[in-house]
């Protein structure tokens, strides 16, 4: 059983030379399985990512991490 399943995503992983449409299963916050077809009966949370791209290591490439734009949170918004 998985916590969530992402269906039909284009997985682009330059390091491992992967560029394909695939399903991605997540369990306990980590990728548990990557396969072309994972059964949707293995989870209650299924997300259709058709037309979307998944790239390992890129969380949000467009962020403003300082408070120069008036926000008081500044660097507190950086992910851990």
TrEMBL record:
Recorded coiled-coil stretches: none
Lineage summary: unclassified sequences, metagenomes, ecological metagenomes
Annotated protein name in UniProt: Amidohydrolase 3 domain-containing protein
GO molecular function: deacetylase activity; hydrolase activity, acting on carbon-nitrogen (but not peptide) bonds
